């Protein structure tokens, strides 16, 4: 049973309880488009599903579905509930799966791409260590190309890093984030001379992307500041050293930075993937992959807001 504090017409803000079984029935109807089809998918009779939805609507004080002869559709209140219901059911299922699973043990050598350092990733790995105390996790942060080379050489077990191209066999995408042209708040764009770039070392994907994109609009560029860490790049940009391509999360972390891409080439999304999954043949690696994926899925809506 999950408690949600809902604002009602009563002044005491009464507590309303939502049952997970009712939310599952609600999601089944939203996905299947009818009470009959939903009943089959959740293993209940149609009358039982109807009763659960009626109780759910009474608890919320709003109708959730519009019914007609051809299809059942969501009301505005139903649309509002949909995302919350999916998250609550998914988190419940994930919690049960994690608690019922055999305790993982072993050692994992994990590489994390320098460009993939969202604010919550250290928290995710810390939580994993706490919930899987028998797993020894060794984390190495670096450039994606270097980490993938080490993985192929057998020095790393798994790598979470940027995926280039459209080869689906190169890694399974876990996360996408918009890329932005980023500069300091007081940066003044000039139409004369080469564009001054701040970048990671030469093998960095976004360094090459910036140079090629600017060349495509007839602008030359020069790297005036290079360092080996994302935080170093962000600090240099904030100090006015130049322009860089970074993920949108850098703008959220740094109020001294701004998006200057209005008159610059459009950029693709950054796609972060898990590499080495096919060769991960022990429980510890699979537990870590599930944990990272579940955590990113749960937090993605907040991260992109």
From TrEMBL:
InterPro entries: LTTR, LysR_HTH_N, LysR_subst-bd, WH-like_DNA-bd_sf, WH_DNA-bd_sf. GO terms for molecular function: DNA binding; DNA-binding transcription factor activity. Residues 18-75 form the HTH lysR-type domain. Keywords: DNA-binding, Transcription, Transcription regulation. It comes from the Bacteria. The keyword DNA-binding applies. Pfam families: HTH_1 (PF00126), LysR_substrate (PF03466). Belongs to the LysR transcriptional regulatory family. PANTHER family: HTH-TYPE TRANSCRIPTIONAL REGULATOR LRHA-RELATED, TRANSCRIPTIONAL REGULATOR. This is HTH lysR-type domain-containing protein.
């Amino acid at each position: 049973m999950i408690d949600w504090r809902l604002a009602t017409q009563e002044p005491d803000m009464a507590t309303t309880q939502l049952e997970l079984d009712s939310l599952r029935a609600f999601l089944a109807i939203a996905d299947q488009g009818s009470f009959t089809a939903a009943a089959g998918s959740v293993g209940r009779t149609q009358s039982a599903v109807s009763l659960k939805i009626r109780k759910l609507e009474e608890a919320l004080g709003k109708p959730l579905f519009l019914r007609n002869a051809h299809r059942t559709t969501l009301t505005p209140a139903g649309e509002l509930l949909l995302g919350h219901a999916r998250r609550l059911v998914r988190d419940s299922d994930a919690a049960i799966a994690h608690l019922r699973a055999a305790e993982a043990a072993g050692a994992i050598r994990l590489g994390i791409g320098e460009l993939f350092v969202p604010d919550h990733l250290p928290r995710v790995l810390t939580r994993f260590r706490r919930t899987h105390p028998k797993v020894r996790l060794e984390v190495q942060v670096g450039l994606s190309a270097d980490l993938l080379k080490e993985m192929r050489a057998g020095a790393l077990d798994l790598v979470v890093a940027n995926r280039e191209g459209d080869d689906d066999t190169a890694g399974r995408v876990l996360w996408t984030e918009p890329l932005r042209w980023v500069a300091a708040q007081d940066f003044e764009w000039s139409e004369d001379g080469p564009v001054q770039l701040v970048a990671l070392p030469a093998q960095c994907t976004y360094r090459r992307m910036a140079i090629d994109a600017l060349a495509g609009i007839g602008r030359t560029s020069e790297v005036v500041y290079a360092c080996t860490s994302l935080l170093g790049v962000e600090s240099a940009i904030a100090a006015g050293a130049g322009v860089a391509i970074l993920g949108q999360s850098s703008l959220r972390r740094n109020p001294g930075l701004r998006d200057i891409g209005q008159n610059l080439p459009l950029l693709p999304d950054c796609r972060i993937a898990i590499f080495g999954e096919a060769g991960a043949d022990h429980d510890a690696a699979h537990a870590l992959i599930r944990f990272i994926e579940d955590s990113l899925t749960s937090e993605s809506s907040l991260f992109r807001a």
